[in-house]
Amino acid sequence: MATSKSGRLQSPVGRNLQNVVLGDLLFQPWNQSIYPEDLVAKDADRLYVCRWCFRYSCDDDVFEDHRRACEHRITPPGTKVYDHGGYAVWEVDGQDYKLFGQNLSLFAKLFLDHKTVFFDVATFLYYILTFTDPDDHESYHVLGFFSKEKLSWDANNLACILIFPPYQHKQLGKLLMGVSYKLSGWDSNGGPIGGPEKPLSELGHKSYVRFWAERIARYLLCGKTGTSALDPDQQRPSSTPKGSRKRPPRETMTVEELGQGTGMLTEDVITALKSMGLFDPQTSPKKRKSIRTGAPDTTTPEQIVTIQKSDVWDWAQAHHLVLEDPVCDYGFEGLWPPAISPEEDKQSVTSEEN
Ligand SMILES: [Zn+2]
Q1: Which of 149, 210, 252, 316 is 20 to 30 A from 92, comparing alpha carbons?
Q2: What EC number(s) would the UniProt record show (predicted)?
Q3: CATH of domain 19-170
């Protein structure tokens, strides 16, 4: 397989695959195929793709033989990191499963236009979303995935995300995005959590803006965050003034504070607030303590955004926001969340009681 120096494979011009069959679902690719020409002929009518390992063939007999013998027929590769309500997420290391990573990338490229598929799969982790029918424990379906660079200089928590076309419009993208933030939150040890790799596709941008807006709305309305790495004191949108029993009708926070509380980048917070019609920045005349740096900012005035909770409620109602987070904390398993020592456990119980 020819790759450029950077490990990227460019799309040949003028190749088109007519249909793809994933398991027993037939649908059309959105983009030109980059499958190797010696294996997938130009303008092939039908490409059969294994729904478990993404191996492919234009020959249905070959495909049938594989389907009966697929090594991942019963269990996906990798380690299960999340399992709740029939949906599970498996972490697959591209180093350990190179062929799986390459075949998944080839298939995904049929539906991801803006990103060049990376074939240096060893540097990526793949998180595949599966569903197991409660009435059929014999097998499972892969519904989509996201990839993540093992070492991202920009602290990206996600490189590519795709829910396969037959499974779209079921809020599954939000589930995967939520999982990506949870995992990077636990990984970050209080450092910046980051966000998806930019630039986003048009569809990706739309999906993320909605995801971020919902995340902020849940945080402002419920005080819940998507991260567990933060100090509980920093998870409040703002403090109720001492001596005051009633919460003020308006609360003030910096955009950075909101980012800290939700585990989101400041730029993503601003994008989301703008989309919600809640971004009305003012410049603070006084110095404020910055949560991010832990020191007073004496150089530049901080940007303050004032949000009325009733406006957040209005947005939530208009957009049919489900207050419950799509990701269930109790669904994580294996290495996630990291084990805590009995000492730390005692402390966390104490702080909860307080
Ligand atoms: Zn297979």
Answers
A1: 210
A2: 2.3.1.48
A3: 3.40.630.30
Residues with CB under 5 A from ligand 1 (ion): 50, 52-53, 55, 70
What's the CA-to-centroid distance between 276 and ligand 1, angstroms?
A: 43
Q: Is residue 127 a contact partner of residue 88, using CB atoms and an 8 Å limit?
A: no
pTM over 0.90: no
How far is the centre of ligand 1, averaged over its atoms, from the C-alpha of 75 (Å)? 11
Residue 326, helix vs strand vs coil: coil
CA distance 154 to 337: 23
Point out which residues pair with 46 in neighbouring strands: 19
Interval 168-202: pLDDT, tens: 999 999 999 999 999 988 777 666 678 999 999 88
H helical segments located in the chain: 60-69, 98-109, 172-188, 202-222, 255-262, 266-275, 309-318, 342-353
56: Cα within 13 Å, side-chain hemisphere: 29
Q: Give 64 Cα–ligand 1 centroid separation in angstroms.
A: 10
Instruction: Compute and round to an integer the Cα radius of gyration of the chain.
Output: 23
3 state DSSP class of 36: coil
Write down the domain spans for the chain: 19-170, 204-241+249-321
